[in-house]
Amino acid sequence: MQADLAGLGGFFVLADATGTDAVPFDELLGDAPLAGRLDQVREALAASTGQDPADVDGKVAMSALQVGVASRLWSVGLATAVLHGTVPDLRSRHLLGSPGHRGDVPLALADGTPWRAVTGPHEAAAELARTVVDGSLADLDAACSRVGRVPPRVLLSNAASSLVGAARVLATARPGAAATAWEVVRLVLAAPGLAPGGAARSRSGLPSGVGGAMERADEAFLRAGCCLFDRIPGHGLCPDCVRAPTHAHLVTPGH
Q: What residue stretches are annotated with the Ferric siderophore reductase C-terminal domain (predicted)?
């Protein structure tokens, strides 16, 4: 299964932590380790935008950090559920990762991590809500809010948008599984712990270029918050931003 996930690329990789620098996920979310990782993300953003690291907004860097980790959680959970009918317990106690940004182990499972067979979209969504929304994601958001002082609404909307993004990538890579993936995503978006972060709506009435792409051409995803990336030089609003419907002229196409 790990090879199949790796074949999807990007955030879907579930690494082998044997003999690496990987540490428990809970440790990664400690104040000092997370602050150190935040500094690394600020440096990476600075390098890509020509800024001095000191000029990179810490809230923006923490938002970017959280998006990256959340995207990995969703990608692994969604792909294993939809493609293999089984989901690893993605609560923090079972996760590992490298301490540094862009480390060798972006996400791995601890030895003995339980897997649960899921039959159909409703079971898959319920398991992802239990282990990700109410588990590792809640822990991640709490830590990012505490250390980076990022508003909870920003983090929750990041998480919802990242889930939709994972579905887009999976649907493109495996068209035969697209319908199931999108059904799972709609169910997870409605979970109480994630619903305040954003929702699907009719594309009717939205300005051109506004709204995140979903399964059907007539539907769009809109976040309940802003990821803050428009504070990065050269980066406008994302199409699914809460501000996009009233500031369509600020949307950066393709983001």
A: 223-243
pTM over 0.90: yes
How many domains is the chain partitioned into structurally? 1
Both tokens of residue 35?
A: 């602050």
Q: Which domain holds residue 172?
A: 1-196
Give yes or no for a contact between 113 and 89, defined as CB atoms under 8 angstroms apart. Answer: yes
Domain membership flag for residue 21: yes
Closest CA to 199 of 251, 226, 164: 164
Assigned domain for 249 exists: no
Q: Does a structural domain hold residue 237?
A: no
Mean confidence (pLDDT) of the chain: 96
Q: Does residue 204 form part of some domain?
A: no
Please write the tens of the pLDDT for every residue from 195-219.
999 999 999 999 999 999 999 999 9
